[in-house]
Design a protein that fits this description.
The chain has 486 residues and is of the alpha/beta class. It has three domains: 150 residues, Rossmann fold; 227 residues, ANL, N-terminal domain (Rossmann fold), CATH 3.40.50.12780; 75 residues, ANL, C-terminal domain (GMP Synthetase, Chain A, domain 3), CATH 3.30.300.30. It is built from eleven helices and 26 strands. The N and C termini lie far apart (58 Å).
Length: 486
């Protein structure tokens, strides 16, 4: 059996009593980590979960998440991390794309209110939406609901399914095999020089592949120590970095912008700090302020759920770029007619490599023809069309925009069309538009909306409506009232 559980087993044998996972004032040794995983695997099997089952983990950055993921890997079930703040509609679409055999959640509303489709139906559910088993996991408040579902017939046998958004903003479950995960993590370890002595802080959420590929997977592979944190505030992150001498931090531009403004900022007392940012390039002024205060560079990277780490600026000297391709990754720029773009010209980015997965599950079947390779699809030579536009300078990739209307907010894809549709679903909104703007405080992207309304609705009501129907990072930060759009 080839699985990431095997990495844990091998590392735990060598690691013994060394710290594996640190969370607040508690920690798990490698030996204790493996013991908990084995015990939880037996518990899941007793509930009827077995090889080939697709299981959702709807949790935050807590040790239980990691333990359950490794337990699922041991019994060869497919791990599907899900954002615990996911709204009802989006969860229904996710499960339509990836029918779950089981779902592990924290208490959410009244007991038993979540069906396999994520909605409350007052008993009006299909037979396969009614749990055949619903139990509290021993020693936790977590609930595991098991449903009567056949095993997936997908030819590709994924070890994980990581959800992102397609070009229309709808859920897209990327199928990642063990080969994809292994290629991705090996490139990360080689590029960032991660060893068993490394101390990695994962404050970005574990339901995002960024946290797995640059945090959890390198830890399992090398025996490094992983620090988990749910509170992604700069003050909290800064304290952990300082107190525990963190030397690897996969973060976001927002986190680094806030860290740069902290009055308590001090030089990082570690030999080789690898402070990575992804999602979009960081503002050069913020990068320089951070370097001055902490005497450490921010390393801008290019990362995607479908590919893992694509490129990184290892010197931290070109914050406007995302650096050069990592080992195993090939990058191509193409023009509108599909031909290779050379020199300093802008082109559409295509990526190829052993970590790249072009296979996915979706609630929709909008597949382009062979003559038109859509964003997120691969051509016959396995080149994946990323949807990003870019130029190059001295071999470094500089992202310049998108081919579609998606933007990155907090490192996650947001289709502006989805936000506009949500706004226009309000009866008193006659027309709407949404745009990405720059937050003046953090110099990072945010969404602002323009609306034409009838009388009787204010900004708070519009934002409340969006908060009920969109993921938190998709909600407009500001509403501008206009007499007309455009």
């Amino acid at each position: 059996m080839t699985s990431i559980y095997n990495w844990l087993k091998t590392t735990a044998k060598a690691g013994g009593s060394r710290k594996a996972i640190v969370y607040r004032d508690n920690y798990l040794s490698w030996r204790g980590f493996l013991h908990r995983v084995d015990r939880r695997a037996r518990e899941l099997q007793a509930m009827g979960i077995s090889k080939g089952d697709w299981v959702g983990l709807m949790l935050g950055n807590v040790p239980d998440f990691v333990v359950l993921a490794m337990a699922l890997s041991k019994i060869e079930s497919c791990i599907i991390p899900i954002d615990p703040t996911t709204g009802t509609r989006e969860l229904e679409l996710m499960i339509a794309a990836a029918p779950l055999r089981a779902l592990v959640t924290r208490p959410r509303g009244s007991e038993g209110s979540i069906t396999a489709s994520g909605s409350v139906r007052d008993g009006k559910t299909r037979e396969d939406e009614i749990p055949e088993v619903r139990k509290k996991l021993q020693g936790t408040l977590l609930t595991c609901s098991v449903f009567s579902r056949p095993k997936s017939k997908t030819k590709l046998k994924p070890e994980m399914i990581m959800f992102t958004a397609d070009t229309f903003g709808e859920p897209k479950g990327v199928l990642r095999t063990h080969a994809h995960l292994e290629a991705s993590v090996d490139a990360v370890i080689e590029t960032l020089q991660i060893t068993k002595e490394s101390r990695i802080l994962t404050a970005v959420p574990l339901y995002h592949s960024y946290a797995w590929d640059l945090g959890l997977l390198p830890t399992l592979r090398t025996g490094a120590t992983l620090f988990l944190e749910e509170e992604a505030s700069a003050k909290r992150v800064g304290k952990i970095v300082r107190d525990h001498k963190i030397d690897v931090l996969p973060g976001t531009p927002t986190i680094y912008s806030e860290l740069a403004r902290l009055p308590t900022a001090k030089k990082l007392k570690v030999e080789n700090p690898r402070l990575i940012t992804s999602g979009h390039s960081i503002d050069p002024e913020i990068a320089e302020t951070f370097r001055t205060k902490y005497e450490a560079p921010i390393l801008s990277a290019y990362f995607a759920t479908e590919t893992g780490l694509i490129s990184i600026d290892l010197d931290g000297k070109m914050p406007a770029s995302v650096g050069k391709a990592v080992t195993g990754i090939e990058i191509s720029r193409r023009g509108k007619r599909g031909g290779e773009v050379t020199g300093a010209k802008e082109g559409s980015l295509w990526v190829k490599g052993p970590s790249v997965s072009a296979d996915f599950v979706s609630p929709f079947s909008d597949v382009p023809s062979n003559d038109d390779i859509g964003i997120g699809f691969a051509d016959k030579d396995n080149w994946l069309r990323m949807g990003d536009l870019a130029k190059t300078k001295s071999g470094n990739v500089i992202l310049t925009g998108r081919e579609d209307d998606t933007v990155k907010i907090e490192g996650k894809r947001v289709a502006l069309g989805e936000v506009i549709s949500c706004l226009e679903s309000i009866p008193t909104v006659k027309a709407a538009d949404a745009q990405a703007s720059t937050d003046p405080m953090t110099a990072t992207p945010m969404i602002i909306a323009q609306v034409v309304t009838k009388d009787g609705i204010d900004e708070e009501e519009i934002i409340d409506h969006c908060a009920k129907n969109l993921a938190p990072y998709k909600v407009p930060r500001r509403i501008e009232f206009r007499k007309k759009i455009g």
